[in-house]
Amino acid sequence: MGSDEHGGDRTVAGDVNGGKVSNGAADLVRARTQLLDGGMPRNPRLDAESLRQALVDLYELWLTSKGTELGITRDSGLAVVAVGGLGRREMLPYSDLDLVLLHDDVDPARVAEVADQLWYPLWDAHIKLDHSVRTVPQALRVASDDLIAALGMLEARHIVGDQDLSDLLIGGVRREWRTGIRTRFDELIAQAEARWQRSGEIAHRAEPDLKNGRGGLRDIQLLDALAIAQLTDAMPGLGPEVPGGGLRQAHRRLLDVRTELHRVAGRARDQLRAQDADEIGAALRIGDRFDLARTLSDSARTVSYSVDVGLRTAANALPRRGLARLRRMPVRRPLDEGVVEHAGEVVLARDARPQRDPGLILRVASASAQTGLPMSATTLNRLSEDAPELREPWPKDALNDLLVLLGAGRGAIDAIEALDRTGLWGRLLPEWGAVRDLPPRDALHTWTVDRHLMETVSYASAMSTRVARPDLLALGALLHDIGKGRAGDHSVVGAELATHIGRRLGHWPSDVRTLSAMVRHHLLLPDTATRRDLADPATVQRVVDLLDGDPELLELLHTLAEADSLATGPGVWGDWKASLIGDLVRRCRLVMAGGELPEPEPIAPELVAKAASGGVHVELKPGEGKYIYTVTVIAPDAAGLLSDAAGVLALHSLRVLSASLGVEGASAIDTFVVSPKFGDPPDAGLLRQELIRAIAGDLDVAAVLTKREREAGGIGPGQYAQAQPRVLWSGTSVPGQVLLELRAEDRIGVLSRLAAALEACGADVRWAKVVTMGSAVVDTFCVDLGSEDTPDRRAAIEKAMLAVVPRPAPKKPENGMPGPEIIGS
Fold first, then answer.
1. Known Pfam families for this protein (predicted)?
2. Arithmetic mean of pLDDT, 457-485
């Protein structure tokens, strides 16, 4: 079986007499031409779907008439079977006619005569024909030896002649496909991947290949083949709120565009050319070329996601043989509250209750993004059907899970794409609909607007330690172009939308203002740096005034400008642009100099009174959210207490979201805001007992933490982070005391490890403020170095701290050998 499309002849004109096609194939061509031109009496121009159906009817009428004339009848031992477009009932204007003449115990001379009389009229009429003459056993052998032929014959359909003969072929091919799929699956995947590599993604190509590109019609045929093998559904459910109408609608749209492409080009064509897009968009009543591009992006991404789900489902459903059949069932590994890993996918735990847990969507997605495991289609469908809306403002734990998702680098793109294709992302962020699949208006942009936003988020995650507010950086990256697709300046419109979104997410008013300003001014630094005189003080003052003299906002915009440029396309960010923006930012910082340093949190009087009584006290109280709690630890101030206290919390799966650590007299008073990783928090009495054991040396916190992390598969020094950790130093008004700020990514028990590292260096921590934002931590320690505040001492402390936080994978130089690891500070 070959390709289903080649050229045709549109120059022939004529009549179709009495609704019947005569035996000459020239009449077939004339009838096809009239269908394309809408030239038949009282027959207006057919729409794409009606045209395909009319072409199927036309070809079937000619073939059945010709077959009857040649004696291809029910008991003749001969049958004509259609594959390709006619077999699928998807006949396009200039599709190949792909036919098989089957015979059984028929005189070879008779078979040759029938074949000649069937094929030659079609050739003489210049109809592109892909043909073969075979017995059923011969056809089955071809299908078993040639994967492409097998895929073609899976679409076979009886046209005329001996129905039993056709059924033998169709049933035999499908039966052998089902029984042999285990040995052919890898070849099937390799063939698809090679095709994607050649043809690219339809959603992100200026001139996409509608047939062979990723997300195209060949991929829908791949899904059909997997369904015939009984490994998956041909039309997997994507949830009730799927944008664009789901896979069935995507299939129809791709067929409609390809049908009009044939009609416009006047010949077979798979690649949509830019110069044809406006005409095709108008013919389909979609709009201009940008509207057509948006429709294709939506359809192709829906198909791509469906193929990903189909291939994954099929791989898990493949029959096992030999020793593989004796393997134990896959273990369900806990990932988060109500979320587990099973058979290589993120799924819901058995006791999960989506109807009562609106934050479950984000926990599933963040677990997928962090682990790189795909979300089960069944899980997404269940969430789509059952999960309620998040109330406004969002609970803190839901916002934190969103930040974990956005901080996962490239993993966030796949996770959000899966949410979006199943309608869940639009439920969380309704404003996304205006930018979904929105094509760029200039050639510099590689991606659709929504994908550009996700690319920016990915780049920003690798820069999170450059800023003091990685949470706002992630959200600013997500929303900076959210105003596109609407009337007005997208920066102004987007700033207003960002205000509404920030309030919905539950941010403080000051953070909402910063987020809105990021969106409003995300182009300020690159536009000013590349178009104005930076030596002019008025230029710098204008930027400072627009940012209200806020150095934190300046820092965020500087980092966002780089992430935005890198996500736009090749060559948009370079040394020249980086140096200009860096110079502008440096000049603005000089004008903005004089920001306030962090200070210790005041300690509540009742805690001071309890500390005066001595002993070890642990209190646990509900916090502001459903999964938020406050743990207060009061104990005699001694070396290692902070490490022990934070370690005990981590051992009981309590993630520290923020902490305020101080000393009053001889007692340390530490307050932690925590969130349980699973279930309910432990009893305060149990935490106190464990802390007393740790203080006494009966519990090796560090060793148990290492074991737990290894069992959980969490991030450790041997695994990699998105962003390079940074340590920033600044002075205080107290001689010998310095502020040490660490910006890094989270890991199990990171605060305990940092405190132990400081203790090992002999650094006396006077107070500390710890904040976790998604997967990022910003920890500030006030360290008393006394007279030993030297560069060497600082370097030793910095090295010890960086040794216990996650770091990016070392870059490999061109010779392939690992290069030296560079630590930012």
1. GlnD_UR_UTase, HD
2. 97
Taking the model in full, what pTM does it have?
0.88
Sign of CA dihedral 379, 385, 390, 391: negative
| CA 302 – CA 308 distance, rounded (Å) | 10
Contact 585, 559 (CB under 8 A): no
Contacts of 688 (CB under 8 A, 6+ apart): 616, 617, 618
CB 501 within 8 A of CB 402: no
Distance CA(153)–CA(100), nearest Å, equals 9
Closest of 247, 264, 367, 384 to residue 302, by C-alpha:
247
Q: What are residue 100's DSSP bridge partners? A: 81, 132
Are 773 and 556 in contact, with CB atoms under 8 Å apart?
no
For 418-480, the DSSP string reads: HHHHTTHHHHH-GGGGGTTTPPPSSTT--S-HHHHHHHHHHHHHTTGGGSS-HHHHHHHHHHT
The rounded distance, in Å, linking the Cα atoms of 788 and 697 is: 29
Query: DSSP label at 786?
Result: G
CA separation for the pair 170, 244 (Å, rounded): 34
List pLDDT tens digits, range 739-755: 999 999 999 999 999 99
CB-based contact 800:758 (threshold 8 Å): yes
Span 133-159, mean pLDDT?
96
pLDDT digits 0-9 by tens, 165-219: 999 999 999 999 999 999 999 999 999 999 999 999 999 888 999 999 999 999 9
